[in-house]
Amino acid sequence: MNIDKKVSDFMNAFIDTPEPSVDQEYYQIEEQYKAIFGHTVPRAMLPDSISMGSIKSAMKTCIENKKDTLFELLGVELNDEYLY
Known about the structure:
Largest sheet: none
Oligomer: single chain
Radius of gyration: 19 Å
């Protein structure tokens, strides 16, 4: 098999790969969160080790309690020296 065929096969497989499904539940919860607290969840400030399920659960708790304690609920601490 020549290199052009390999590249062509790879590109075709890449293009045919379905897009990942969007977590509609997350977006619905985040819209409620945003409506109450005036901002979205700062995902870039959260460690990758925190699961989507944990984030959704924490957002629901914040919404129910009407308190923006997301970082506390997820065990995330922000300071000038380190994140987490």
